[in-house]
Design brief:
11 strands; Hypothetical protein af1432; Rossmann fold; alpha/beta; about 10% strand
C-alpha cells in the first residue's frame, strides 16, 4: 500500500498501480525476446514498434517506470524518442540499447534523452534484468521522494514559528555576508590573485606527494568542471568546484607514504583516524584565503556519501554541498577508470556508477557524470595498437601520451606515465631542458606499425 496526502494534512492508504516497463524496438523478434525474458517478473511489459507508438502508450498508460529503447529505428531514433519522452514524463527511468561501437549514439541518448544507462547488443540477460530492476527502483524512489516532499511541504505550512525562524536565518546570513564582504574588500590583499597563486602552489606540491601525481588532479578537475557545466552552474561556482577538485587531497600532505598506500580496511584505528582527518586539514589550509573558503567547504565534505555512510560528519543527501558531491563523483570516476585497462573501460565504469547511485553518489548527477565519462576520458588502447618510442624533445607535440614517468636529474617526478601532454607541459619540459635538468628525449606512446591492418 502507498499513502496519498489529503488537503487537511492527513494521509490515506491507496492500492498501488502495478509498475510497467515500455520496450521500444522496430524488430518484433527483439520485442518477443524481451517479453519472454521478463515473463516471470512482477511488472508488466508493454511494447511498441516505433517511437511514435511508444509516445502514444506513454500518454495513455499510468505508472510506467522504465523505458528500454533501441537506438537504430526508422523515422525516429531512440535518442530522439527518449528526448520527447523526457519532456513529457521526466521521472521515468530511461535506458538505450545500442551497438558496442556506436559511442556517439550513447552520448546523444545520455545528453539529449536523459538516459542513465546504455546497454550493448547482444545483451547479457542477467545484466539486462539487473539494470531494469535498478531502473524501476530508481523510479520508485523518485516517486516516493515526491510524495514525502509534498507531505513535508504541507506540514511546514502549518508551523506557526516558521516566520520567526525565517527572519532569524535571514539576519544571520546577512551578518555573515557583511563580514565576508568586509574581509574580501581589504585593500591590503588582492584576494583573487592571492587565491590563484595558492592554487598553483598547492597543486604543485600535491602533484609531487604520495602515489597520485599531477595527472590525477588535472583529470578530476576536468571531470568536475564538465559535470558542473552540464548542470548549468555559473562560472563562479564552476571555478570554486574546479579549485576544490584540484586540491581535494590537500590535507594528505604531511601524511606518510606508507599510510597513503594502504586501503582503509588495512589501516589501524589510529591510522584511520588520521586519514579521516585530511578533509578537515585541507579545509583549514584554505581558510586564510577568502576566495577559496567555499572550495574549502567542498573539500571538507568530498568523502561524505549520499546515504550518510561517509566521513568526516556522516551527513547525507542534499545536506552535502553540491560542489562536494560533484568532486566526490569526479574523484571516484578518475580513480576507478585509472585502474581499468580494458578497451571498453568507459562502458564498464558506467555500469559501476549505476550501482553506486543513491548509495555513494547523488542520483541527480547520473546524466552529467556519464557525459563527463564519455567526453573527458578515453578508453585504453589495445596493447597491439600502440608502442613505446623514444623521441627528441623537438618532436614532442601536444596530445601525445607519456609512456614512462619523467623525472628531473634531482629525482623530482615531473610527469607521470599516462599524462596527455598540454601546452603548459611542453613549456615546462623546455624550461627544465634549458636548465639542464632533464634528458633531451622523452618516451611516448605511438600507434604500432601494424595497427589498423587487417589480421
Amino acid at each position: 500500500m502507498t499513502t496519498t496526502p489529503l488537503p487537511d494534512g492527513t494521509v490515506k492508504e491507496v492500492a498501488p498501480i502495478p509498475l510497467s516497463i515500455l520496450c521500444v524496438d522496430d524488430e518484433s523478434n527483439i520485442l518477443n525476446t524481451l517479453r519472454r525474458l521478463f515473463r516471470n517478473e512482477e511488472f508488466q511489459v508493454l511494447t511498441a514498434t516505433s517511437g511514435e507508438e511508444g509516445l502514444a502508450i506513454l500518454k495513455t498508460t499510468e505508472n510506467i517506470g522504465l523505458i528500454l529503447s533501441d537506438q537504430r529505428m526508422p523515422e525516429m531514433t531512440g535518442s530522439a524518442f527518449l528526448q520527447e519522452s523526457r519532456e513529457l514524463f521526466p521521472d521515468i527511468s530511461r535506458m538505450i540499447l545500442t551497438g558496442y561501437t556506436d559511442v556517439g549514439a550513447a552520448i546523444d541518448a545520455i545528453n539529449q534523452g536523459g538516459a542513465y544507462r546504455f546497454l550493448t547488443k547482444p545483451w547479457n540477460e542477467h545484466e539486462l534484468r539487473q539494470a531494469v530492476h535498478d531502473g524501476l527502483h530508481r523510479y520508485q524512489l523518485t516517486r516516493d521522494n515526491q510524495r514525502l516532499n509534498e507531505l513535508v511541504r504541507r506540514q511546514n505550512v502549518e508551523l506557526a514559528e516558521w516566520n520567526d525562524n525565517l527572519k532569524n536565518r535571514v539576519l544571520q546570513q546577512t551578518a555573515q555576508l557583511r563580514q565576508r564582504l568586509k574581509d574580501e574588500q581589504s585593500p591590503a590583499t588582492d584576494n583573487a590573485a592571492c587565491a590563484k597563486s595558492a592554487v598553483e602552489a598547492f597543486s604543485y606540491l600535491l602533484g609531487r606527494h604520495g602515489s597520485r601525481a599531477t595527472n590525477h588532479y588535472r583529470t578530476v578537475a576536468a571531470l568536475a568542471d564538465r559535470i558542473s557545466q552540464h548542470l548549468g552552474l555559473d562560472e563562479r561556482h564552476c571555478t570554486q568546484i574546479r579549485n576544490a577538485a584540484l586540491l581535494h587531497d590537500l590535507g594528505t600532505i604531511g601524511m606518510s607514504e606508507k599510510l597513503l598506500s594502504k586501503e582503509t580496511d588495512q589501516m589501524t584505528p589510529d591510522e584511520l583516524r588520521e586519514f579521516h582527518s585530511h578533509p578537515l586539514v585541507g579545509q583549514a589550509a584554505l581558510e586564510p584565503f577568502g576566495e577559496l573558503r567555499e572550495a574549502g567547504i567542498f573539500i571538507r565534505h568530498h568523502h561524505e556519501a549520499y546515504d550518510g555512510s561517509g566521513f568526516p560528519e556522516g551527513v547525507a543527501g542534499d545536506k552535502i554541498p553540491l560542489g562536494a558531491r560533484i568532486v566526490a563523483l569526479a574523484d571516484w570516476i578518475e580513480t576507478t577508470f585509472s585502474r581499468d585497462s580494458r578497451p571498453d573501460a568507459r562502458y564498464q565504469l558506467s555500469k559501476l556508477l549505476a550501482v553506486e547511485l543513491g548509495r555513494t553518489f547523488d542520483p541527480a548527477l547520473s546524466t552529467a557524470g556519464n557525459v563527463a565519462i564519455m567526453q573527458i576520458l578515453r578508453d585504453p588502447p589495445l596493447l597491439s595498437d600502440v608502442t613505446d618510442v623514444e623521441i627528441g624533445l623537438a618532436e614532442v607535440e601536444v596530445e601525445m601520451v607519456v609512456s614512462r614517468n619523467v623525472y628531473s636529474k634531482a629525482g623530482v617526478l615531473l610527469l607521470d606515465r599516462g599524462t596527455r601532454l598540454e601546452a603548459s607541459d611542453m613549456e615546462a619540459l623546455l624550461r627544465y631542458h634549458g636548465a639542464g635538468q632533464i634528458a633531451e628525449t622523452l618516451h611516448v606512446f605511438r600507434p604500432a606499425l601494424n595497427a589498423g591492418k587487417p589480421q
